[in-house]
Amino acid sequence: MGFKVAILEGDGIGPEVVNCARKVLEAISKIFNIELSFEYGLIGGAAIDKFSKPLPEETLSLCKESSAILLGAVGGPKWDSLPTNMRPEAGLLALRKELDLYANLRPVKVFSELSDSSPIKNIDGVDILIIRELTGDAYFGEPRGIFEKDGELFGVNTMQYSQSQIKRVAKFAFEVAKSRKKKLTSVDKANVLEVSALWRKVVSEVAKDYPEIELEHLYVDNCAIQLIKRPKSFDVLLTGNIFGDILSDEAGALSASLGMLPSASIGSSYALYEPIHGSAPDIAGKGVANPIATVLSVGMMLEYSFKNKKAAKLVEEAVSKALKAGVFTPDICPEGKKPSTTDEMCNAIIKALEEGG
Ligand code: IPM
Ligand code: MN
């Protein structure tokens, strides 16, 4: 049985990093005898330029008929002046919402070869899985907009979660915690926000079905500190859409570069894989983008969509081997070493794959 992968390259460095991830998938398909096909669709700025909208119907139907979706990144200065709902980012948000991809998994691990490049000391051994709710919160709540009242403008967004939205992502997180170190930290701002008070209540109720999991609640401001002070004490970190967006970038710094962090966005019918980083317009087209986050996203695709843990592990090992061989893109390059290009990094990963990780 074959798998069809929808590829949405997006903007900026998107096409460059996706190109490497596709090569990795092709190498894996030969090693493990997996039948794969690829079909491309437009999203973000690239779609705005061609179809005047960030998520064309063609792209959405392609995603719905594929076994998994691989996405690069969206956005860039060219489209910055467009209204919020017409920006490249709106295409990605609409895709997450349309496919109901409610659980966004963002693993934060530190490769030992990079521990000296992390701004945090003694970082070896950090292994956090951030689970960010992806279909609710200020990202989608109504009312939203810029309104005129009393002769001036008001910007409005609404933080909103239903009980069922919280419950399903909490269940997902507790289930995942069972196969890890059995610790779950739920992050909210329940001392100030009603939406968070409900979040905390529902998470605590779900916790009753998982007595073997240790549950800790943290306020988001405190969590931001604890991630720096005691990163090794975290296992699964569950939070809403906007706090998850911010905390996952912070956690990215632990692993030396955002260019290292993959993600999987999972719903009951579909799954999308993308690096956490953005389209990095400043380095787009220069051939120096770090492809590792996208390559590791493909690793997550192998694990979660194709149920092939062995292949997923091989991808991770190949990345580690490329780093051990001294290949570093500029964002992760230790002082005194010569930085490599995207292609050099990609070739090193593929060589390691072919040698068996
Ligand atoms: C992310 C990104 C997106 C988000 C943007 C590009 C819409 O920052 O995936 O973290 O805010 O969710
Ligand atoms: Mn983000």
How many DSSP helices?
Answer: 11
Low-confidence segments, ≥5 residues, pLDDT <50? none
| Estimated structural class | alpha/beta
- What is the β-strand count? 12
What is the name of the CATH superfamily of the largest domain?
Answer: Isopropylmalate Dehydrogenase
Classify the helix fraction into a percent range.
25-40%
Main sheet: strands, sense, barrel = 10 strands, mixed
Using the alpha-carbon principal axes, give the shape: globular
Supply the CATH class of the largest domain.
Answer: Alpha Beta
In short:
The protein is of the alpha/beta class and 357 residues long.
What does this structure look like?
The structure is a single chain. With about 350 residues, the chain is α/β, with parallel strands linked by helices. It has two domains: about 190 residues, Isopropylmalate Dehydrogenase, CATH 3.40.718; about 150 residues, Isopropylmalate Dehydrogenase (3-Layer(aba) Sandwich), CATH 3.40.718.10. Helix content is about 40%, strand content about 20%. It contains eleven helices and twelve strands. The strands form two sheets. A ten-stranded mixed β-sheet has the order 2-1-3-12-11-4-5-10-8-9, with helices on both faces. Strand 11 and strand 12 form a beta hairpin. Helix 1 packs across helix 9 and helix 7 runs parallel beside helix 8. The longest helix is centred in the first third of the chain and has 19 residues. About 50% of the residues are buried.
